[in-house]
């Protein structure tokens, strides 16, 4: 009985040791904690996402640049909204072009 208890304790310890760093890396390290004063021209932006408010304390929009750098931004700022609108419009145009090309291919 003692061996079984020891083995279960070791397995539980091992699971906690393996899972805890993974949880921390996914949750806190990916959260924006403040808004840097970095200004990036919208033509250099590739995409954005809204930071998950259930995991992170600070509401933020996270932009990704063409070079893969992540930049946190205040969602209430006009420059942030303009950047989001620019990317939304850029993606909308891309999807419309793709849809037209697909329609053309299907009709052929």
UniProtKB/TrEMBL annotation:
Pfam families referenced in this protein's UniProt entry, alphabetically: IL8 (PF00048)
Compartments where found: Secreted
InterPro entries (UniProt xref): Chemokine_b/g/d, Chemokine_IL8-like_dom, Interleukin_8-like_sf
Record's protein name: Chemokine interleukin-8-like domain-containing protein
Domain of life: Eukaryota
Chemokine interleukin-8-like domain segment(s): 28-87
Endpoints of the signal sequence: 1-24
UniProt keyword list: Chemotaxis, Cytokine, Inflammatory response, Secreted, Signal
Species this protein is from: Ameca splendens
């Amino acid at each position: 009985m003692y061996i079984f208890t020891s083995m279960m304790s070791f397995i539980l310890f091992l699971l906690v040791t393996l899972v805890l760093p993974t949880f921390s890396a996914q949750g806190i390290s990916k959260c924006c904690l403040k808004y840097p004063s970095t200004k990036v021209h919208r033509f250099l932006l590739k995409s954005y996402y809204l930071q998950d408010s259930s995991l992170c304390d600070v509401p933020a929009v996270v932009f990704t640049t063409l070079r893969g750098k992540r930049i946190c931004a205040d969602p209430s700022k006009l420059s942030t909204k303009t950047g989001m609108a620019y990317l939304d419009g850029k993606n909308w145009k891309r999807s419309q072009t793709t849809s037209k090309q697909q329609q053309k291919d299907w009709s052929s």
